[in-house]
Each structure stands twice: as C-alpha cells, then as structure tokens.
Amino acid sequence: MKQPRWNTERIPDQSQRVVVVTGAGSGLGLETVRALARRGARTVLAVRDPDKGRAAAARITAEQPDARLDVRRLDLADLDSVGAFADSLRAGHARVDVLVNNAGVMAPPRTLSAQGHEVQFATNHLGHFALTGLLLDLLAQAPEPRVVTVSSLEHRKGRVDFDDLKGERRYVPMEWYRQSKLANALFGLELHRRLTASGSPIRSVLAHPGYSATGLQTNGTARLPRLLFGYLARPLAQSAEHGALPQLYAATEPGLRGGEFVGPDGRGEMRGAPIRVEPAPGATDTEVARRLWEVSEELTKVRFPFPALQE
Question: Which domains does the chain possess?
Fold first, then answer.
C-alpha cells in the first residue's frame, strides 16, 4: 500500500526534546515552532525583535495552552549578539536536541553588518555558522542531535565570490542572496563531512521550502526582487505552513541520515510534501566548501572542535 504524503501528523512525539529555531517570529520559523509545540517540544524562539517573538509565542499559546516556549533575542547579523545568545542559552539549557538554522534576509539594498560584512552573507550564513559552532557542545549532550540548515531553491543559481564577499566592487541583491543560500548548502554538507570524520553523533541535514509566501520576499527587499517575488509571482507560492514541512521533516524524521537534503516533491521542487532531493552540483564542491569553512572561521572567530578534512 502506498504511504500517504508526509504531513505534521506524522511528526513523532517531541516532548523530550529542546529545539532552537532561528527567525521564529514569523513565516517558516513560526510555523515550525507551532508544529513542534503541538508535538510537545520545548522550543526556543530565537528572534531579532523580542516583542515580535513574544507576540508570536502568545498566538501559539492561545492555540496550545501547554506549549513550552522560550523567547530569546538573537540578531544573526551581529556576531556579538550570536555569542550572547549562545551564552544565555547555555545558562538555561543543559542540552539542545535540534538547531534549525531558518532565519534569513532576501535581496535588500547593500547593507553592512555590525562587523562590516554584507548583510545577507552575515545573516544567512556567517551568523548560523557561528551559532552552530557555539552550540555544538550543547548538541553533543543530546541523544539524537541534529542541525537543520535551511537553504533555498536559489542556491542552484549561486556562486561564492571570495574576492568580493562584501559586494564592494559590484552588488546585485539577488546574486548575493543566491551566494548566501549556496553558502548554507555548502556549510551543511561540509559540516556533515566533518562531523562524520570526527565520529560525532550530531547529524547535519539540509532543507529548502520551495516557493513559499512569507515576509522574506517583501521585508526590506530591494524594489525589483520585491516586485517579482513578493507580488507578481506570489499567486504561485504555497503557504508558509506548507513551506515549513521540509524543515520539519528534516528536524524530526527518525530515519533521515546526515548529509541529506529535503525539499518539496512537486514540479521543480516549488511546492508539495517533503522528500529527499539532490543539492546543486556547486553545493557538493568540496574544495569550495573547505575554502568557505576556513573563511567563515576567520571572519567569525569561531573554531569548530574537530580537525580539517584531509584530501
């Protein structure tokens, strides 16, 4: 008999798990928290705006009075904020079972982060790279830990310009978004390789939501991408609730192996139920991944506690 398509009803009991979700105040992050809370997880909403996070938590609690939610401030574009968040989390939690690297910004006008990095690369990649490294010890305390890094279909069109990561010579908002989403995929796969080589029980998996209607396409986005993705193409998008399914599958499906990528099963991976998909060839380039890892350690000053891979 053919198995029904995966949905949130198939999420196993999460009552013994602590899950951290970045960008949890709206969109895919909020839907991820809502579904996990329904299955009993103790969930940390990592949000740039705590008031917005508390409002999101109140909406979930109104639906699920027994939801266990913990709102904490995290600005991924500011590495000082990432460090402070990790310290505060460590003070309140003995372990983290799942880290969902979900938060992101899409195609804003050129802006620099607090540390002087292009804001999409800083938020979407460097902040999550640093956060993962700083929480690795808490993840290692969990019985079946995993890191879920959320990329995008746009990673397929990306390339990493190591000579102009800040966009000082030229800056095209969507190209730098694609670069950051390719960096997510490169990081998630390289993390898997390094965890495996070090014998760590932590699983690194990837997900992408297809094309989903969220505030990502309109909040702070440059005019042309906002018009195209936020309005003209919006009727083609699936809801945030459906867009969150791949990362929920990646976070909870018991049989998922490290290094696997989850996306929608519809045409072009634009929408649908979650299945295992293939990353773009550029995401599997181990030499680019190694160079990105080294650059990321240098820029964030976060060193992961395992040796570099050998050729």
Answer: 13-300 (3.40.50.720)
